[in-house]
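Researcher: Going back to the complex we discussed earlier. I've cleaned up the inputs and rechecked each line, so this should be the final set. Can you rerun the prediction on the complete assembly and write out the structure?
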Amino acid sequence: MAARKTLGESLREHGVSRRGFLKFCAATASMMALPPSMGPVIAAALEKARRPSVIWLSFQECTGCTESLTRSHSPTVEDLIFDVISLDYHHTLQAAAGHQAEAAREQAMKDNHGEYLLIVDGSLPGPNSNPGFSTIAGISNYAMLQEAVAGAKAVVAVGTCSAFGGLPAAAPNPTGAVSVMDIVKDKPVINVPGCPPVPMVITGVLAQYLVFGKLPDLDEYHRPLAFFGQSIHDRCYRRPFYDKGLFAESFDDEGARKGWCLYRLGCKGPSTYNACATMRWNSGTSWPVESGHPCLGCSEPKFWDAGGFYEPLSAPLGTPGNTLLAAGAAGVVIGGVAATLAKHRAATAVAERQPVTVEELEQKL
Amino acid sequence: MSRLKEIGVKVEDGEAAPAEWGNALPILHEVGHGLRQLRETGEPTVIDLHALPFGPGDEGRLFDLLGRGEVEAQIQALGPTRIWETGFPGVWLVDHRNTEDERLALHIEISSVPEILRSQREDIDDAIVRLEACIADPAGTS
Amino acid sequence: MSDPMGFLLWVKGPAFNFALAVFALGMLARLVEIFILGRKTNYAEAKGGEWGPGFKTMLTRTVADPGTFARAPFNVVVGWIWHIGFITALLLFIPHIELFRGVLGIAWPGLPNPVVDAVTAITILALVATLVHRTQHPVKKHISTPEDYLVWTVTFLPVLTGYLAYHRLVNPYPLILGLHILSVNLFLVVFPFTKLTHVFTAFIARWYNGAIFGRKGVQS
Ligand code: SF4
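Model: Rerun complete. Updated structure for the full complex:
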């Protein structure tokens, strides 16, 4: 932790030329979804940037988010870890294990108190559930988060589990899982959801923090607008087909082969905010809709409980057809009874009618 | 999951005809705009092709439309960067790749020379120092 | 329920199911009652058929006669515009068709979104015009009941929220989509107990009218 060199120094030391640095900045701008004209600004900022200390905590998760991060190619994760940030604790990626690892975490928290960036992947059992559902080195997730948050500058919740609860919190939520946002109220929380998030988005958010030294602009769900500002649907190259009303009806029909819109096959693109449509996956090779599969909506809250993956977004939940039949049948019965009663009333009224004679009326007058 | 089973899947062999997504043409308009600006004010333009919602084949089609011009160059810095002037002088394609040859960024740069091709001041400073050292000690013995 | 997505899942799931149940129950109860009650047996000799004239009148009464048009051109024109717009947006917007497929199991071709979008915008304007007219026109104002305003509101809200959701004018998206569905749920619940039932009964009434005249052998 001793050498907090600036990034410019550290890159020059690695024998990186100015051209290499400019290229790095161009890639960073692209990664941060900033216009290329921001390149020089980024260069100036990166030149002076100091590597922030990062502590990464993994709770109820599948390590998919870390896997995703290590597939980030722009810049390579090695660059990112060794040059751009100082990843002081990540129990999957670090070499140290056991007590040494925990000691490294505590050391980093002490040395950088109030300054480090805390990254969390995975949800955690809430304060009211059994802390034994998930522990690290005998410490409950909840206690560890509380302790680490105290000295953090900000918390980045990576992945849908830590941002929104994700799979562990899906009904019936056996571990009482909650998101980081549910617990951390007094520190800024940045959500980078996705199951997993696009690798470049994870690194992009970190780079943004590094370059501008401040936290990004966020949407209602605390997601950085630079990456989550537009829906998949609004950036989808199949959108013209949606607007024209041309849909694939199955995975092998003519529409599917022609690359028509996947709405009817369950695409959640219209309600999903993420950067897949432009950043793509696997080093920019493709993304779900491009490979012919509907978007699952993985970067949205409650996506596991939001209806079938292959049900159109507007399809109702549950079995409304049965509701309709049952209620309709009940309606028929009620209507029948009501009509019979009314007929009966009319008949009795006729039978019991006591006509008033003119004389009677005159008497009353 | 019931709906998934109902959805038929057929594996096709052979290449389907490349589709036309119509994303290449609007970029040509933007390029034309940039070229006129370069002519009038000398101001360069950079378009980040990574940030565009391309469909499969869109990029190839754009490359075909732009064509190849007279100049080609390659830079080795943090992996290769390939640069070529397109069939339209003043319009360059800059393809940044990392050491594993994966694309970092793809730009259309509209200027007389792409910025990254120029020798940079910091590198020139460094060059002076090293050159002087070389003159002082041509054999590099110290 | 606290977050927008939870809200959306609630309105789409239990709330929608409830609204649908109220709608189906209420509407069928009313219709069955109407049909069972029927009309008094007519002992007079039939001078003509009932079915043919009944259906004919269903159509002819749908078009306003010249006299009505001359007296209330605004009602006729604007009424037609928003009715057609409402039905188009309801039945020919593709996500709506998927909803019908989900509930009824049947589907049909839809219209391109920009068309539905334009139609919806016109419908919103027309509906606002009807409200303004209702509150400004002395006679209309006098005869309007709270029910009329309730019906206008539950009809207007789904169109408005649908438009807002389509254009993403409210964030986050699940919130406005949820409000749209909620307004539809409200529409469904109110439907069987207000004059909205005219969607079904107007045509039945027209048929009865035509049938009565047909039987008497007179034109309607
Ligand atoms: S495929 Fe999905 S995201 Fe793309 S236009 Fe269709 S519904 Fe929208």
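Model: Worth noting: Chain B has one domain: 14-136.
Researcher: Good, that matches what I expected from the previous run.
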